[in-house]
C-alpha cells in the first residue's frame, strides 16, 4: 500500500484536519519540525491580513505515541484562529440570524462554476473550501512524509526563482542542500539577495497599484534512490504523479520537470544527460537536465520540479463580474486578500513532493516498521551498487 493524504476543512470554519494513512510504525516525529513548516508556509512578503491572525500549529490526535508512529492513520488538527470572527457565518449548525449571501464571483477563483456545480446561490459555499487555507493541512501532512523521507536519506528544499518580471539569475552549478541554508531569511525565499530585494520592490509597487502577482518556485529532492515510479503504465509514471500533485495546489498553472519547457527549444544533443561509468562512482551523469526522472522513474539524481503560479485572483480593485442574483454587471467580490504567495506556495510544493515521493517509497519497499523499510532500501542499494 502507498501513502494517502486527505484533508478536510473550510477557510473560516473551526479548523482543518489532515489524515495521513500508510506510514510505517516506529517512525520518529518531531512536533517542532511539523510546526516549523506550518510557520514557514505563513511567511513571505505580500501576504494579507489573515496571516496576522493565524499562528498555525498542528495537533496530533491519532496514530502517534511518545513521538513515534504506531502504523495506523495519523490525524492532525489545525485550528483556525479566525473562526472566532466567523462563528455565526460558518457555524456547522443553523443560527438565529439570517446570514447575508455572497453573490459576486471572482474571475480566476472557483466561485462561479462552483455555484452551478454544487447547486448553491451563495458563493461562500464554494470559496470556503476552494481557499488555499487548505494548504495548511497539506503542509502538516507533508511534514510527516518529510520525516519518513529523512529516515531513508532524502531532503527536500524549495526557493522562488521568479516574481512576475523579476527572475533569479541562472546558476552555473547545480544546487546542493547546503545552498539552501538561510533561504527562509529572504522575505521572498529567493537564494539571490539582489533579486530578493528587486522582488520585494516589485510586490510593493504592484500591490500599491491594486495588482496581484504570480511567479515560479522550484522544489528539489536530494538523495532520492533510483527506480521509484515505473515506465510500465501511465498511472505509475512518477513525473505524472508529481505534476498532478503540484497542479493540485491552488493557483498553479504549469509544471516543468528538470529543464521542463526549455528542452523544447534545444536540439537532442543538448537535451539529455549522457551516461558514464567509473569503478569508484559506478554509473553517473554530468548533467541533470531530466530533473532526476527518465521513463517515469527516478534516476538517482536530484528530483527537480519547477512550478508556475498565476497571480492571485482577488484584486483590491476588483475585476468585472456579474451579480449571480440579479444577473446585472458588477464588480467581483472585494475581500481581504494576499497579493503574492509564491514563497508560501513553495513550502506547499515541498509538502506535495514529499508526499508523492514517500508514497513511491512505500509502494516500492513496503514494510510495517521503519526499520523494515531501511533494511529493504539498504538491500536494494547493495543490489544495484548505488551510493549517494
Ligand atoms: C498559499 C496561497 C494563498 C492564496 N491566497 C489567496 C488569496 O488571498 N486570495 C485569492 O483570491 N486567492 C488566493 N490563492 C489562490 C486561490 O486559492 C486559487 O486561485 C483558487 O482556489 C482557484 O483555483 P485555481 O487558481 O487553481 O484555478 C492562494 C493560493 C495559495 C497557494
Ligand atoms: C488563510 C490562508 O490563505 C487564504 C487563501 C485565500 C484563497 O482564496 O485561497 C484567501 C485568503 O483568505 P482570507 O480571506 O481569510 O484572508 C487567504 O488568507 C492561509 O494560507 O492560511
Task: Walk me through the topology.
Blueprint: E1 4-8, E2 15-21, H1 31-42, H2 50-53, E3 59-62, E4 64-65, E5 68-69, E6 74-79, H3 111-117, H4 124-130, H5 135-151, E7 155-163, E8 166-167, H6 193-208, E9 215-222, H7 238-247, E10 252-257, E11 275-278, E12 282-285, E13 293-294, E14 297-298, E15 303-309, E16 320-322, E17 329-331, H8 342-365, H9 370-384
Residues 11, 48, 50, 54, 131-133, 135-136, 250, 335-338 line the site of the ligand C=C(O[C@@H]1CC(C(=O)O)=C[C@@H](OP(=O)(O)O)[C@H]1O)C(=O)O.
Question: What features would you describe in this structure?
Answer:
It is a single chain. With 388 residues, the protein is an alpha+beta fold. It has a single domain, classed as Chorismate synthase AroC (Chorismate synthase, AroC fold, 4-Layer Sandwich), CATH 3.60.150.10. The strands form 6 sheets. The protein has a 5-stranded antiparallel beta sheet. A 4-stranded antiparallel beta sheet has the order 1-2-6-3, with helices on one face. Strands 4-5 form a two-stranded antiparallel ribbon. Strand 13 and strand 14 form a beta hairpin. The radius of gyration is 22 Å and the shape is globular. The chain starts with a strand and ends with a helix. The structure holds flavin mononucleotide and ligand EPS. Ligand EPS binds next to helix 5.
Amino acid at each position: 500500500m502507498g501513502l494517502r493524504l486527505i484533508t478536510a476543512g473550510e477557510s473560516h470554519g473551526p479548523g482543518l484536519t489532515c489524515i495521513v494513512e500508510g506510514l510505517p510504525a516506529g517512525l520518529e516525529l518531531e512536533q517542532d519540525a511539523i510546526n516549523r513548516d506550518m510557520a514557514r508556509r505563513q511567511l513571505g512578503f505580500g501576504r494579507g491580513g489573515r496571516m496576522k491572525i493565524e499562528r498555525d500549529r498542528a495537533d496530533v490526535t491519532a496514530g502517534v505515541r511518545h513521538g513515534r508512529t504506531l502504523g495506523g492513520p495519523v490525524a492532525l488538527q489545525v485550528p483556525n484562529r479566525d473562526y472566532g470572527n466567523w462563528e455565526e457565518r460558518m457555524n456547522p449548525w443553523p443560527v438565529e440570524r439570517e446570514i447575508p449571501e455572497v453573490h459576486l464571483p471572482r474571475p480566476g477563483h472557483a466561485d462561479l462554476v462552483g455555484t452551478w456545480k454544487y447547486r448553491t446561490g451563495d458563493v461562500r459555499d464554494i470559496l470556503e473550501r476552494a481557499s488555499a487555507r487548505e494548504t495548511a493541512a497539506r503542509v502538516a501532512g507533508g511534514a510527516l512524509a518529510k520525516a519518513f523521507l529523512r529516515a531513508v536519506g532524502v531532503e527536500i528544499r524549495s526557493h522562488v526563482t521568479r516574481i512576475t518580471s523579476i527572475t533569479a539569475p541562472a546558476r552555473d552549478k547545480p544546487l546542493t542542500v547546503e545552498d539552501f541554508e538561510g533561504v527562509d531569511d529572504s522575505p521572498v525565499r529567493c537564494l539571490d539577495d539582489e533579486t530578493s530585494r528587486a522582488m520585494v520592490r516589485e510586490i510593493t509597487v504592484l500591490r500599491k497599484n491594486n495588482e496581484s502577482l504570480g511567479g515560479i518556485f522550484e522544489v528539489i529532492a536530494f538523495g532520492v534512490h533510483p527506480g521509484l515510479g515505473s515506465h510500465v503504465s501511465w498511472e505509475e509514471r512518477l513525473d505524472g504523479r508529481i505534476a498532478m500533485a503540484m497542479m493540485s495546489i491552488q493557483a498553479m498553472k504549469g509544471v516543468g520537470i528538470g529543464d521542463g519547457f526549455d528542452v523544447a527549444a534545444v536540439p537532442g544533443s543538448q537535451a539529455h544527460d549522457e551516461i558514464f561509468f567509473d569503478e569508484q562512482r559506478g554509473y553517473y551523469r554530468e548533467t541533470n537536465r531530466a530533473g532526476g526522472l527518465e521513463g517515469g522513474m527516478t534516476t538517482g539524481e536530484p528530483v527537480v520540479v519547477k512550478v508556475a503560479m498565476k497571480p492571485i485572483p482577488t484584486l483590491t480593485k476588483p475585476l468585472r463580474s456579474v451579480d449571480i442574483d440579479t444577473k446585472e454587471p458588477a464588480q467581483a467580490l472585494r475581500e481581504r486578500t494576499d497579493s503574492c504567495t509564491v514563497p508560501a506556495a513553495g513550502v506547499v510544493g515541498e509538502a506535495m513532493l514529499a508526499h508523492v515521493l514517500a508514497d513511491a517509497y512505500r509502494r516500492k519497499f513496503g514494510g510495517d516498521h521503519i526499520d523494515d523499510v531501511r533494511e529493504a532500501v539498504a538491500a536494494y542499494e547493495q543490489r544495484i551498487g548505488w551510493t549517494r
